[in-house]
Design a protein that fits this description.
about 5% strand; NCS2; transmembrane; mainly alpha; 18 helices; two-stranded antiparallel sheet
């Protein structure tokens, strides 16, 4: 029999799952734009979330769910595959090799030291920039923002599809504001229902295409990665970006969740931080093998922690709840892009929160942070934002007579940044 504490962990695991379950739909909708099968990416997403969250619970003992990371999936699709025209098989190979780098850095505890060497204002700005990038993708997927020869980008005129998206965005925002559990997932489902009449009762084309409810899992992406081509010099910036983006994301998430829940060891560090980072590294490595973008710890796990989750049992329960969705790919494939677009837009709102921690009156920190934040969405590249943020930080600190604030690790990172620019 489960005791009272165990039941609390079960409830917390269910709550954490509801908060993160939107990734089951959103990740395939993003990666399918890279030419990958929706159903196969869905299978890979569920398997990665299950194995990674299970490892976080059993090995690291933390109440944190792990799944394909938002921002990393956008980078994979829009920067690497579409922007750089890298075949998705080769991009999966880059994910795998970045996972190997993560694992080495995590096992020898180098990863934590590197991240701590990166100035906090840049960490905050990069997180916010990735949030803006995801928001931009959401607006584009909804057809709200389009290209305009005169102004580069512009807003579309109202039409039935756009009105449906705006209704879904408003509803999802209301659910989040009301702190309804599973608000993002409910918003996706309600927007899908609202989109069903499009092309049937009004509008020019059918948006929701019903293909059934259940089917066997699609394992067609399993081991489809290209190990060899991923090691070419031109992909060094890609691996570099996967490494550093995931490092910022996972470590800041784990630190933030541990601080909020007081899950700290005797030295005031997040509990089992090394094991948690190893878990994150393994998740990224197997992501390439399974056929999806890198895995990372989810900040939405805070919902489970708020519900009383303190141990790895919370993550184990959440992991198990992912499994049934292996068999629901036809049902989930009916969810259109305009239904997941509100989730993308509002995820950006979650991720931009750290920007208030930047001191905007100290120009040698504010300008690099600003450049990192805006160049990510403006260049449609996380890599560019990170690189120019690092280089401008080093330049302004140097000419301000504050070279002592530039860590040795930052100088090494700058060297790699310049190499990455030259290669690209």
């Amino acid at each position: 029999m489960l005791n009272k504490n165990s039941w609390t962990e079960v409830i917390a695991g269910c709550s954490a799952f509801l908060a993160t379950s939107y990734i089951i739909v959103v990740n395939p909708s993003i990666l399918s734009q890279a030419g990958m099968s929706f159903s196969a990416v869905l299978t890979a997403t569920v398997l990665l979330a299950f194995f990674s969250s299970l490892m976080m619970g059993l090995y690291a003992g933390n109440p944190v769910l792990v799944a394909p990371g938002m921002g990393l999936n956008a980078f994979f699709t829009f920067t690497v595959v579409i922007g750089m025209k890298v075949p998705w098989e080769t991009a999966l190979g880059a994910v795998f090799w970045s996972g190997i780098v993560f694992l080495v850095l995590s096992v020898f505890n180098i990863r934590t030291q590197i991240v701590r060497a990166i100035p906090k204002p840049l960490r905050h700005a990069i997180a916010a920039g990735i949030g803006l990038f995801i928001t931009l993708i959401g607006f584009i997927n909804a057809g709200f923002i389009t290209s305009n020869p005169a102004t580069v980008v512009g807003a579309s005129k109202l039409n039935p599809v756009l009105i449906t998206f705006l209704v879904g965005l408003a509803l999802t925002a209301i659910l989040i504001t009301k702190r309804v559990k599973g608000a993002v997932l409910l918003g996706i489902l309600c927007t899908t229902i609202a989109a069903y009449p499009l092309g049937r009762l009004w509008g020019d084309s059918t948006i929701v295409n019903w293909q059934g409810v259940a089917a066997s899992p699609d394992f067609s992406l399993l081991f489809r990665l290209n190990f060899i081509d991923a090691l070419q010099w031109s992909l060094v910036p890609v691996i570099f970006s996967f490494v550093f983006t995931d490092m910022f994301d996972s470590l800041s998430t784990l630190v933030g969740l541990s601080e909020a829940a007081n899950l700290l060891d005797k030295n005031g560090e997040p509990q089992n931080i090394k094991r948690a980072l190893v878990t994150d590294a393994v998740s990224t490595t197997i992501a390439g093998l399974l056929g999806t973008s890198p895995g990372t710890a989810y900040i939405e796990s805070a919902v489970g922690i708020e519900a009383g989750g303190k141990t790895g049992l919370t993550a184990i329960i959440g992991a198990v709840l992912f499994l049934p969705f292996l068999f629901l790919s036809p049902l989930l494939a009916a969810i259109p892009a305009i239904a997941t677009a509100p989730a993308l837009v509002l995820v950006g709102a979650f991720m931009i929160a750290p920007i208030v921690k930047v001191n905007w009156t100290q120009w040698d920190e504010a300008i690099p942070a600003f450049l990192a934040m805006v160049l990510i969405p403006f260049t449609y590249s996380i890599t560019q934002g990170i690189i120019w943020g690092f280089l401008s930080w080093t330049l302004l600190k140097s000419i301000s007579g504050k070279s002592n604030e530039i860590s040795p690790a930052m100088w090494i990172i700058n060297a790699f940044s310049i190499i990455a620019l030259i290669i690209e």
